[in-house]
Design a protein that fits this description.
about 190 residues; 6-stranded mixed beta sheet; 7 helices
């Protein structure tokens, strides 16, 4: 069966500032580019057949770095985009509390639903499995999308720790069920002190 390696993009200035990025196209910063290079170096010792990425530049550049290093095809798919964050994009938690109060999550702010993210993500995973049977495929995406989709795919996934930038999570199908073999791994960053 197909093995999928979920990768969160490298870090951006908005990640550092704790701003909600959503689908705003914020590029990697220099640290994010270094993280992507370290990840590509890690993957040189592994076998991967293809990489798919969100069309947002922070994920796309991370994936391009990997694809170039490994000499594998890169496919861009907007279904891997981050959660649409509506009116909160570009804001910090403090900004949101100042604008809408402590219960800002109760307001209709145009934020994409979990159901919408799960639908588009599940559809993409199904297509990847059909196109790449028995292969190992990387999906470079975003923290909220990956965190929302994993429990929908993998039974007993539950709540896990916050996904780190360029972390790797491996899932594979076993008897028609997805299992998680590795979660939120960032050992490639330890070697280069990022």
């Amino acid at each position: 069966m197909t093995t999928i390696g979920w990768v969160r993009h490298g870090i951006t200035d908005w990640n550092v500032a704790k701003k909600a990025q959503g689908q705003t196209d914020i590029p990697l910063n220099d640290t994010g580019r270094a993280q992507a290079r370290a990840l590509a170096e890690r993957f040189r010792n592994e076998t991967w057949d293809a990489v798919y990425a969100s069309d947002l530049s922070r994920a796309k550049e991370t994936a391009e770095t990997i694809a170039k290093a490994l000499g594998i095809p890169l496919y861009i798919d907007e279904r891997l985009r981050e959660k649409g964050c509506g009116k909160i994009e570009g804001t910090t938690e403090e900004d949101r509390i100042r604008m809408w109060g402590e219960d800002w999550r109760e307001f209709e702010l145009g934020i994409e639903t979990e159901e919408s993210m799960i639908a588009r993500g599940t559809e993409l995973v199904k297509e990847v499995c059909q196109r790449h049977p028995g292969q190992r495929v990387l999906l470079v995406s975003h923290g909220a999308l990956i965190s929302t989709l994993l429990p929908a795919l993998v039974a007993n996934m539950g709540e896990r720790q916050h996904l780190h930038n360029t972390s790797v999570t491996l899932i594979r199908k076993l008897d028609e069920q997805w299992v998680c073999d590795l979660y939120n791994c960032r050992r490639h960053l330890d070697a280069v002190n990022l």
